[in-house]
Amino acid sequence: MPLKQKLKHMHISSRFRGFLPVVVDVETSGLNPATDALLEIAVVPLALDQQGMLFPLETEAYHIEPFKGAHFDPESLALTGIDPGHPFRYAIPEQQALHNIFLKIRSLLAESACQRAVLVGHNAWFDLAFIQAAVKRCHLRSVPFHSFTSLDTATLSAVALGETVLARALRAAKIPFDINQAHSAIYDAEKTAALFCFITNQWKYSW
Questions:
Q1: 3-206 falls under which CATH superfamily?
Q2: pLDDT tens-place string over residues 152-191
Q3: What is the pLDDT of residue 203?
Q4: To 10 degrees, what angle do helices 124-138 and 94-112 make?
Q5: Which of 78, 89, 110, 165 could form a disulfide with 63 if both were Cys (CB 3.0 to 4.6 A apart)?
Q6: In whole angstroms, what is the distance from residue 179 CA to residue 144 CA?
Q7: What is the Cα Rg of the chain in Å?
């Protein structure tokens, strides 16, 4: 099959060995997933267009109520600007947020014929660790994400762009970035998705 025709028929399930890439960003009350709260989560699933180019789907995001007994690091809260107890956060319990997100991802897995989602993140280990800690607290048995495989845009950016910091990598990729909007789960997830798509699409002809 000619390359151009092959690209038009390329399915997301065959692009990543049966994995569905889902970009995730979390904002937390500290750096320890065992003791610190998950305060915000945003997910951006990805898909392929008819030219075989990766692109982001609609973002799903939630503000999350801290779990009982959570630790709050003042430096982390100052960095994110989050007031965990603010009434206008309209936060929901982490179990409800994870249930909604996992339900959406499972629907996309069925539609895409992918076996499992793979978490994409900037320093992806951090986001995955906080999700796994929340899953354990909530006693959730079925998790759509692969338990240890992840795709890290910090590593990819180091190879492709010579940068590891998200803001610098985005500048190198000529993707607009507003530092005043950083450390919001939605903004960071959408920018990470743009960066991952930019880097991955450079190699679309090497499949």
A1: Ribonuclease H-like superfamily/Ribonuclease H (3.30.420.10)
A2: 999 999 999 999 999 999 999 999 999 999 999 999 999 9
A3: 84
A4: 110
A5: 89
A6: 32
A7: 17
Among 162, 156, 148, 149, residue whose Cα is nearest residue 194: 156
Report whether pLDDT(33) > 70.
yes
Q: Is 102 left (phi over 0), alpha (psi -120 to 50) or beta?
A: alpha
- Closest listed residue to residue 116, CA positions, set 126, 125, 106: 106
| Angle (deg, nearest 10), helices 185-201 and 153-161 | 50
Asked if 56 and 44 touch (Cβ cutoff 8 Å), the reply is yes
The two structure tokens encoding residue 139: 């006693």
Per the CB < 8 A criterion, the answer to whether 148 and 173 are in contact is no
H or E element, residue 41:
strand 38-48
Which residue shows structure tokens 């075989």?
Answer: 52
Q: How far apart (Å, rounded) are the C-alpha atoms in residues 111 and 2?
A: 26
- Among the listed residues 63, 71, 122, 183, the single catalytic one is 183
d(CA 201, CA 76): 34
The helix/strand/coil state of 155 is helix
Q: Exposed (0-12), middle (13-18) or buried (19+): which is 93, by Cβ within 10 Å?
A: middle
11 is catalytic: no
